[in-house]
Amino acid sequence: MWHRTMLLAVLLLGLAISVKARTCLDEAIPENQRSNITIGGVSMPLGVWSCQWASGYVSAHVYAILAGEVLGYQIKEGGGSSSKQMVFALGGCLDPSAYGTDPKCGTGEPVTEHVGFENWNSFNTQMPGWIAKIGEMAPLLMGGMGYEGLEGMYIMDTPLSAALSDSGLHLEYYGSFNSSWYKPEAYFPSISTIDLSLMKKCSTGRMSFSQDADIYVKPTGDVDGVETVSGQLKLKCWNEVWWLSPACRNTPESCIPVVSGGVGSWRDDPADVVLQYALGFWHRYRQAKL
Q1: Alpha-carbon span 64 to 49, nearest angstrom
Q2: Domain residue limits at 266
Q3: Contact, 87 vs 130, CB < 8 A?
Q4: Residue 53 within a domain
Q5: 42 in a domain, yes or no?
């Protein structure tokens, strides 16, 4: 009997610790006293959607804590890889990751994702088109979060220090990538050293979206950087993996590879950022190889 009583006490203590660990605030509303919301006649938790990078997750999670523990809502946290995906998720689209093709919006299914934070495309000129694509359930922009963010390329210290020590070359300055004067490629791995089996092909993910190819070619006029496949404009890739800037197309092995993360994007916009960086370098310094 003593053993059974002790076991029960340990279990109860463990349960108490477990319940307490689920809350953040001292006076949090207990989870079993929180309420669902009702959308389209369906009762469900409040869906909090976060982008899968540190600051995006933190801001959404803080809101989830406050909405659950202070306001008393049941919370369901989810998320995805990009700000664009967030827009379509909050619009009730069934496949928000396919926003470049068919995200399956306007199906009449209840919206299960309701709040999102840190959207880097809030003022993107394409936003009206996305809203129109989503239809009457499109999300509303509620305002800023109180801080601004910047993004860009970052060069690690090893090549940065090596170039500075060897030749006084400042790799953080884009003018140093003019191969008529300098050889910045000496401080980076070459394309041939990268295992292509570890790379996503241009025929999958973001690089396959005709929307991105169109965004790229319209302002740049670089028709050699795209091709038409099955009636759709696509980014033209070398070895099915690398999109090459104009200066690299004759001698790809001599150029500096830039490897993006996740589904083949620079945060959200390969066409808006990396491709135009590469082309912009080429126009400013006609032999810049990136």
Answers
A1: 9
A2: 157-284
A3: yes
A4: yes
A5: yes
Q: Are residues 100 and 174 in the same domain?
A: no
The number of folded domains in the chain is 2
Say yes or no: 276 and 197 in one domain.
Answer: yes
User: Are residues 185 and 109 part of one domain?
Assistant: no
Shared domain check, 167 and 272 = yes
What sign for the dihedral angle of Cα 29, 33, 38, 42? positive
Angle at 250 (CA atoms; ends 289, 233), nearest 5 degrees: 90
pLDDT grade, residue 277 (50/70/90)?
Answer: low
Q: What percent of the chain is helix, strand and coil (3-state, nearest 5)?
A: 40, 15, 45
Question: Quick one: average pLDDT of 215-232?
Answer: 88
Tokens of 90: 């909050």
If phi > 0 it is left, if psi is from -120 to 50 it is alpha, else beta; for residue 136 that is alpha
What's the one-letter identity of residue 79? G
Same-domain check for residues 225 and 130: no
Helix H or strand E segment including 48: strand 46-51
Tens of pLDDT, residues 142-189: 888 887 777 677 788 999 999 999 999 999 888 888 878 888 999 999
Amino acid identity of residue 105, one-letter, is C
